[in-house]
Structure formats: structure tokens, C-alpha cells
Amino acid sequence: MAAAPAMKTVTQFIKHSTELRTADPVVSYYCLEYAVQLSIPIVRATTDPEVRSYVFSLMDDVESFRAQLADNPTMSSKPTSRTHLLTFALRIFATADNEERVARASLKTATTFLAASRFLEVWRGCFLDTDEQAEAEGEDEVERARTLAAGRDCAEKIKYAKYQAARILRCVKTKMDPNVERRTELEEEQKQVEAEVEEMASAPPPPGIEPEDSSLDPFSDRTISPPIQGGGYYDNPPAPAPAPAPVASSYFPHVSPSAPERYDSPPDTELHAPSHPTPPAPVREEVRAKEVTEDEMQQARKHARFAISALEYEDVETAVAELRRGLAVLGAR
């Protein structure tokens, strides 16, 4: 059944559900469930039989879809499905965000930002329940606090994703480069890094660290003795062997046995390792971490939780991105 005109606000989520029906049935189901949630107020506000029939059809599809996923392990518990959907949405967001941050934004990047904002919206709509519902489902306060913190972060990401999508689309329509500002910012950061490196290289060494001195080289006084004339590295080399006798015409000449020649063994020599001056112990500089506020600590914990959730689904790219954001909040470079 075709969507009614009044249902245009929810058709985008139905479209994503159809696209992911085979690739990720769990995400597909929640997209369809969220579409039904958005449809209920529309049904209550209209008497259009076409709209009501369409919404009732969506409800039947949701019930049927949920029955098909009864044996899916991801749907076995709410925390599991919640983590799965959030990880999926963050991975889509990170894909678009990484392209924009390295000045490679395109029309595809804008489309990815829009899709990420919708998946994050689905997560908020399906899992940010009221406190009464959370208590009824047995969710403890710690888990509830984590969910609320993730919800606030998702709200910020939704606004950012929609802004970037609109900005990039506007540049594409006006035939402008959407990466001009980001490219300029990256060039300025590169110049700043180069200036800092040059300043560090030209600065005098810290107190307590002596400049490099060749006398401190433990191998500087090691020399290789020339070979002893007439016999290599031994004092009494063996005498040269006598010249062999002429070979007889037979292939197996008769050779009279004779005692083997004796060689004087070289005298025992005791090897001593050369003495070297002990290099001074390196001086460590004390590095003090920046003072972190409570808000920054909370934000760092949030990124760490997202990284752990991503690793549960082997999404290394999203985990690394979230960990880097958390370290940046704490002042790490």
C-alpha cells in the first residue's frame, strides 16, 4: 500500500527499514517500530480512512516482524538490542564524520549524515523510556543513568549531523567546495604543529641533560688489532703443509701411510673486555596532567562506554574514534 501524503514524515524510516531488512533485521525492525510510534499521533489527529488503514497495516507488519525475530539472540534482551542499535548508528555517524574531518566531504557524506541522524533518532525513540517503564523492566539506576547520558550525546550528534548534511547539500547545490573551511583549518593545524616541532628542536636541553659527547660512546675506544705478521691471529702458527706428491697415472695411486703432522696448539690467551665509562642515567621530565572538571570526566566516561559497546560488535573503527575523543577531552595529545 502506498503511503498517504500525511505520512511523509515517517516514510524515511520505513525506507531505511526496507533497505536493512536482510542486512540487519534488528535495526530494520526498530526503524519500523519507530515509524509506527510517529504514526500514532497522526492517526489520532485525522479521520482520513486512507491514513488509518495505512497505519494499521504498519502495526500488523511490526507484529509479524517481531515474531520472525523471536529466535534472534540480539532481541533476547533490551540491553542487548539497545547496544546493537546504538553501535550501528554510531558507526554510520563516524563514517560521515571522518570523511568531513579530513576534508573529503561529498554528496554521499551528506546522505550518510542524514541516515546517521535518523538511526540515532530511532534509538532515542525506542529506548529512552520513562522512569516508570524502566523500573517495571527491572533496570537499575546505574544502567538508567548510562542510557540517559547516551541519549544526551545522541541528541547532540543528531543536531550536528543535520547541520553538516544541510551545509554540504547547500554547497553541492551552489557548486561550491564543501571542504574549503575544513581544509583551511587542517592547514592551520599543520602549520602550528610544524612551528611547535621547530621550537622544540631549537630549544636548549633541559637542566641536568648534557649535550651529546663522543667520549660517552662505549665503543669509541675499541680498536681492532692488525693481524700478526706471518701467522694470522696466533703467536705460533702451524708450519705450511708440504707440497703434494705427483699424481700417478692410475686413478687410485698407492699412498704409503705416514704419521699425521703435528701442530703446536696456540697458547691460551685470556680475553678481557675493554673498560668503558658508565653513561649517565637519563633524566626524566615530570609531566603534569591538566586539571579535569567533573563535566569533562563525565564526557570522557561517555566516550569510553561507546567504545566498549562498539568493541562488543567488533567495530574497531568506531571504538578507536570514541577513545580518541575521550582522550582529547582529558587533554591527551
TrEMBL record:
Any Gene Ontology biological process: late endosome to vacuole transport via multivesicular body sorting pathway
Subcellular location: Cytoplasm; Endosome membrane
InterPro entries linked to this entry: Vta1-like, Vta1/CALS_N, Vta1/CALS_N_sf, Vta1_C
Region (Disordered): 181-283
GO cellular component, one term: endosome membrane
Sorted UniProt keywords: Cytoplasm, Endosome, Membrane, Protein transport, Transport
Coiled-coil annotated spans: none
Superkingdom of the source species: Eukaryota
Membrane topology category: Peripheral membrane protein
Biased composition (Basic and acidic residues): 181-194, 261-273
Domain Vta1/callose synthase N-terminal: 10-173
Main subcellular location: cytoplasm
Transmembrane intervals: none
Domain Vta1 C-terminal stretches: 294-331
The keyword Nucleus appears for this protein: no
Family label: Belongs to the VTA1 family.
Name the record gives this protein: Vta1 C-terminal domain-containing protein
Protein species of origin: Saitoella complicata (strain BCRC 22490 / CBS 7301 / JCM 7358 / NBRC 10748 / NRRL Y-17804)
